[in-house]
Amino acid sequence: MIGTGIKKGTAELAILSVLQDGPLHGYELSRRIEAQTKGSLSFSLAALYPMLYRMEQRRWIRGTWETSSNGRRRRCYRLTPQGKKKLQPLRAEWLELFSALRRLTKVSNA
Amino acid sequence: MHDWRLLVQQRLAGLLIEDGEATQVVEELAGHLEESYQSLLRDGLSEEIAARRALERVNDWQDLKRKLESSRNKETIVNKRVAQFWFPAFVTLALSMVLLAVIQIFGPSPWIGPMPAGRLRMAPVLPVYVSWLIFLPFIGALAAYLSRRAGGRTLAVFSSVVFPVFPYVAFFVIGLPLALILDDHVARNLTLPMFFMGLCAWVIFPAAALLAGGVPAHYFSGRLDARTTSDG
Q1: Which residue from B81, B128, B155, B208 has the least number of CB within 10 angstroms?
Q2: Shortest distance, CA B39 to any CA of chain A (angstroms)
Q3: pLDDT computed for residue A110 by the predictor
Q4: Which whole number is the average pLDDT over B208-223?
Q5: Domain that residue B17 falls in
Q6: pLDDT tens, B56-113?
Q7: Measured between CB atoms, which of B29, B34, B60 is closest to A49?
């Protein structure tokens, strides 16, 4: 299980990466992240929505209200051009961190 | 059928963000809980268990409220402190001082009667003082209500409840020791029993009276919140 500190740091990367595949609303976004990380990353509401609102303020993502086929109003988040720009250096930073840790702990890929 | 919107609205009551935004946040979170609940129902869980599981996505509503406020509004920290502590604290202070003045002007007159000399030196002002103490629990309850309504936690609630005694505490802790050092007259006339009598009369008893109203108001409003949200 991944610790809280690292989870917090990776949350932005996780959200941006998942939104890269297309717009999603909060519930679906959290489900995707949980499924794709096999439960290692899971968001409570207190973690997810404040994070989404903060990212929206930074203009990395944009939320718009949409009405689904069953008439339910949902707020869908999509990546903005600024968010796309942010994703690349974030990915590079985390890759660098993981490879540094791998070298440090001498954990092999195998 | 669960009214998730009502439930979220109740649990996030007093959310310090702009009205329009608060409505949107409530709608969005309610939508999340509804989807979570529906998904659990599709997995074959009973309505009761599905609702409980969906609610488990929020461990602490106060924590969620705080995080939402800080993420949506940069000025919220100051606003929150004002609403949860400073406003109720100054209301309590002002009311308790005004009350004391009103009782002195319109209330019972101080006794002047046969009292054994040397005993109960405070006795002549007792009618004024006791009348004041009797009303303090109501002021304490009001402070607790105001602070709690703004989402104040226990420390903020109780600090605002006992705020009127803070100036007296400052006097006894700082002012009086300084006067003892700097003024011979005070040092010669102040005795230990007088010091404790003053401390009790202006700090301990008023604080106890304010808390006598503030503590029940705090816990009663907490229970009321829990009951209304569980009903939702």
Answers
A1: B155
A2: 11
A3: 46
A4: 87
A5: 4-74
A6: 888 788 888 888 888 876 555 566 778 888 999 999 999 999 988 888 888 777 666 5
A7: B29
Contact A27 B31 (CB under 8 A): yes
Say if residue B198 is in the same domain as residue B146. Answer: yes
The last residue of a domain, from among B41, B74, B107: B74
The per-residue pLDDT of chain B, averaged, comes to 82
* Cβ–Cβ pairs < 8 A, chains A and B: 56
A25 touches chain B (CB under 8 A): yes
Write out the two tokens for A66. 């949409």
In a domain, A110, yes or no: no
Question: Which residue in A8, A27, A67 has the most chain B C-beta atoms within 10 A of its own C-beta, making it the best mutation to test that interface?
Answer: A27
Q: Identify the domain boundary among B40, B74, B108.
A: B74
Contact B72, B29 (CB under 8 A): no
Do B86 and B158 share a domain, yes or no?
yes
Q: CB contact, 8 Å: A53 with chain B?
A: yes
Task: For A22-41, give one letter per residue: b (16+ CB within 10 A) or e.
Answer: ebbbbbbbbbbbeeeeeeeb
Please give the DSSP secondary-structure letter assigned to residue A41.
S
Instruction: Give me the half-sphere count of Cα atoms (radius 13 Å) on the Cβ side of residue B7.
Output: 20
Q: Name A88's Cβ contacts closer than 8 Å, sequence gap at least 6.
A: none
Q: b/e per residue, B151-167, with b = 16+ CB within 10 A?
A: bbeeebbbbbbbbbbee
- Supply the pLDDT for residue A1: 47
Enclosing domain of residue A45: 4-105
pTM: 0.52
Question: Which residue of B31, B60, B71 is in closest CB contact with A53?
Answer: B71
B222 pLDDT band (50/70/90 cuts)? low
Q: How confident is the model at residue B121 (pLDDT cuts 50, 70, 90)?
A: low
Same domain, B88 and B146: yes
pLDDT < 50 positions in chain A: 1, 110
